[in-house]
Specification:
By secondary structure, the chain is an alpha/beta fold. It is built from six helices and 14 strands. The protein has a five-stranded mixed sheet, sandwiched between helices. Strands 10-11-14 form a three-stranded antiparallel sheet, with no helix packed on it. A hairpin with a 6-residue loop joins strand 10 and strand 11.
Length: 283
């Protein structure tokens, strides 16, 4: 047993004045006798009087009240070992997470699961949040503060990019916490079995978001300046097929509601491709 405020035990000295007052309040008892002859031969010199202390219920209650107050002030606690868990949560923020399903995006579904996980965690457990968009980004350090974690989750946004789950997982695996059990959880709409090879001796769990994966998206757009004519800019667009089957679609590029370019495309499962779609010139 240990105490946070051991000096509060000094308040127990308040029992001393209570005992002193009880001694003072004891009165001499008058006893009527038939004769004083037995006391006539006693010496007339002063004699010391010995008082006996008699406890009553009120005295016991007062002492118990003081001791209970002191016991509360010293704030005792028991030492015991608590196994703190450290979890790294990776949120996929690629373009495929913007896919609409059941009236909400996959990112919103993933956020809802994140909020539930944060709400159900033990008070002493710490969580780190990492996003995996065009590049991995650590958005919180390890913290057990639910408010900080929930505010960070609210700010997560998906972009028109491919995911960097491999880089994010490598970042999570490189973060060490000595003496702590650690678990890595990935929230994504696709799971790559090869990612498990990147973690050694650590728990890895996938939270698959979405009911289907037959979607493709624009993940990047680049504009390159002309080599000889600086006013000439050539545009490139990058597409990625997130599904497990070949996708056929018509890709159209518009600027101010005016069609700039259009082309039918075919992407095999998991394929990415970059296509030039024209020149953007200005005077």
């Amino acid at each position: 047993m240990n105490f946070l405020n051991p000096y509060a035990a000094l308040y127990s000295l308040a029992v001393i004045p209570i005992i002193f007052f009880y001694f003072l309040k004891q009165e001499k008892i008058a006893v009527y006798v038939s004769s004083i002859i037995p006391w006539q031969e006693l010496s007339e010199s002063p004699t010391s009087e010995t008082k006996t202390f008699k406890m009553d219920i009120l005295f016991i209650l007062q002492v118990l009240f003081i001791l209970a107050l002191v016991f509360a002030l010293i704030r005792f606690y028991l030492m015991h070992d608590v196994k703190v868990k450290h979890s790294v949560l990776i949120m996929d923020t690629s373009a495929s997470m913007l896919t609409q399903e059941d009236g909400e995006t996959r990112l919103e579904k993933a956020k809802a699961q994140l909020f539930d996980l944060i709400d159900q965690k033990n008070r002493q457990d710490s969580i780190m949040l990492i996003t995996a968009g065009a590049y991995p980004k650590k958005i919180t350090d390890f913290t057990d503060n639910k408010t900080i974690l929930e505010q960070a989750v609210k700010k997560i946004k998906a972009g028109e990019t491919a995911s960097s789950l491999t880089d994010a997982l490598q970042l999570a695996a490189s973060i060490s916490k000595d003496g702590a059990s650690r678990k890595i959880i990935i929230f994504s709409d696709h799971a790559d079995a090869g990612l498990r090879q990147l973690v050694h001796g650590q728990k890895l769990d996938f939270k698959l978001i979405g009911k289907r994966s037959d979607n493709a998206a624009i993940t990047a757009m680049d504009i390159h300046q002309g080599l000889y004519d600086y006013s000439e800019h050539k545009a490139f667009i990058t597409l990625h097929n997130f599904s497990q089957k070949t996708q056929n679609a018509q890709l159209n590029i518009y600027l101010n509601e005016q069609k700039l370019w259009g082309k039918p495309i075919t992407l095999s499962a998991g394929q990415s491709t970059t296509l030039p779609f024209g020149y953007l010139n200005h005077p």
